[in-house]
Specification:
By secondary structure, the chain is of the alpha/beta class. Helix content is 25%, strand content 34%.
Length: 340
């Protein structure tokens, strides 16, 4: 498996930094290798992220930590359900700070309080929320109800960033964690960045804290999300970097001043491309997100980018799938440089 090879004298420091970036595998032992230490890495922790920390990635022989029991197995042991019910236990969940968001199937509805309490105990959650519908509307409002515990406001830490939010009022997708890490690994020194769909600061904060942007103009139309954005800026000590803007990003004043424009939204993102191109200066970069049928990738997003550019020349810098979105549909990102 992949391991970070680090000098013994810096092992604890680098272990903490890798863990802060959610790159540490906790079910495998840290090993000694002469004067070096081998730190096991999670699959989503890419080599370039390790190299940015100044460490070498090597292949190592994993040694399991015998005392580690995966959380799902702990829940199984704690509930001790009959086999026909045990098969319905959720194997996926989202732990945001100390609030757990989970889908408990209807087959377990009669014991959902007991099930929720077990997951809370194992995962250290204060509150457990049940997803009852998809994120909806322009404001991207989640549909959840509290099953166990009390209080849905929390502070979630991801990639060394603190996000304060109310899980019942604003969305938070951990599925974008790799893309948020990628943004945090950019070198935006001296750059003015516009985040057209800032939310509570999903991408704004990594760009301000880790990517060292000079200024991030963070646009958000949802007053509730905007309120948390304004709280998260001082929480992460980037008051001098982030400039929050409440309202439709198409009303943001100014043209041709942005070195980088981030369009981290899906659904109708292409409708905002004319504004993005009006904001970006020659030589600047647009990070364009779109949900797209897999059989239309990358042709449809590229066509929409060319249409939005209105004759400006583009250079494709990067393109990849962010995550699966629905059957035969994925969430993609394309980075383009606007040449003139």
């Amino acid at each position: 498996m992949r391991m970070a090879k680090v000098p013994r004298e810096r092992a604890e420091e680098l272990r903490r930094r890798i863990q802060a970036l959610d790159g540490l595998r906790k079910d495998v032992r840290i090993l000694e290798d002469g004067e070096d230490v081998l730190i096991p890495l999670r699959e989503g922790f890419e080599d370039h992220m390790a190299h940015r920390l100044g460490v070498e990635v090597v292949q190592g022989e994993p040694r399991s930590r015998s005392f580690y029991v995966p959380p799902f197995e702990q829940v199984q042991r704690d509930l001790a359900l009959p086999k026909y019910l045990e098969g319905y236990l959720p194997r996926k969940w989202e732990l945001l700070g100390d609030v757990l968001v989970i889908r408990i199937p209807s087959e377990l509805a009669g014991i959902r309080y007991q099930v929720a309490g077990s997951y809370a105990k194992v995962l250290g959650a204060r509150t457990v929320c049940q997803e009852v519908g998809a994120v909806t509307g322009v404001h991207r409002t989640p549909q959840v109800e509290v099953v166990w515990g009390d209080g849905t406001e929390t502070v979630h830490k991801e990639n060394g960033i603190l996000y304060k939010l109310d899980v019942a009022k604003v969305m938070f997708s951990s599925g974008n964690v790799a893309e948020k890490r990628r943004m945090s690994m950019l070198d935006c020194s001296g750059e003015v960045v516009v985040d057209m769909f800032a939310g509570i600061g999903y991408f704004t904060l990594p760009l301000a804290v880790h990517a060292r942007a000079k200024k991030v103009v963070a646009c958000e139309i949802n007053p509730v999300a905007f309120g948390y954005l304004t709280e998260n800026v001082p929480l992460n000590r980037v008051e001098g970097v982030v400039q929050p803007f409440l309202g439709d990003n198409r009303d943001l004043p100014g043209e041709g001043f942005a070195d980088r424009v981030l369009m981290g939204y899906v659904g109708t993102t292409h409708e905002f491309l004319p504004k993005a191109f009006s904001l970006v200066r020659p030589g600047g970069i647009i990070h364009y997100h779109e949900t797209c049928p897999i059989d239309e990738w990358p042709q449809r997003p590229l066509r929409r980018l060319r249409e939005g550019a209105q004759g400006r020349r583009l250079e494709i810098l990067h393109q990849e799938e962010v995550k699966s979105y629905a059957p035969a549909i994925s969430h993609y990102v394309i980075d383009v440089k606007v040449l003139d």
